[in-house]
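Worked example

This section walks through a single chain of length 196. The input is the sequence exactly as stored; nothing has been trimmed or padded.
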Amino acid sequence: GQRLAAAKNAVAEHPWWPDGVYRFFKWTQGDGLLTDDFPQHVFVAAPNAQEMSAILALLLLLGRCTSNLTLISTVMRCLLRVVVTEVTDELLTLLKDGWAGISTRPLTAYPLALAIRAMMEYGHLWVHLKRGAFTNILHRFDWFCGTFPEDVSFKQTMSIVKLLCFTAVPLPYGPALVSFARGVYFMYPPKFRSPR
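Given that input, the structure is written out below as tokens.
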């Protein structure tokens, strides 16, 4: 029955988990179930880097089994595009967010952010594959639960932009396209609409 009090000057220190970034892989297997529990807050987007890399891995295996050098070469170029696009996008996000409050250690924060993001998305993909819920792949949970539809639109748009960078846009221009799309969003960010 007591009231909560704000502790504005409190500092919380969390020790590093013994399983490192793998913890995020396990954690997101739980929130990956939200697509089943709350379908009204789910939207469809183009394949992300982790889904795309899984598709490309299967195509690479097919190319190796059939000795199709053209397919292997095409897949390897796409994989390189996936890596470059993700590295560029994460860098832009961290720069926009001021290194997410850890600007004193950007060289540590950047690769760590990349690894955590990758583990989280691989966790989402794995839980769907493990459960045989293949129709949940390409489905994303709206963490704002419908109160910020502009965010959903932005994520869907960026997923299409990144898919183009993964598959069609020549490598030197892919990062420029991602930068342009992110830049437009950063310059004209949508306003958050609080739930009524």
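What to look for: The beta strands are 42-44, 139-141.
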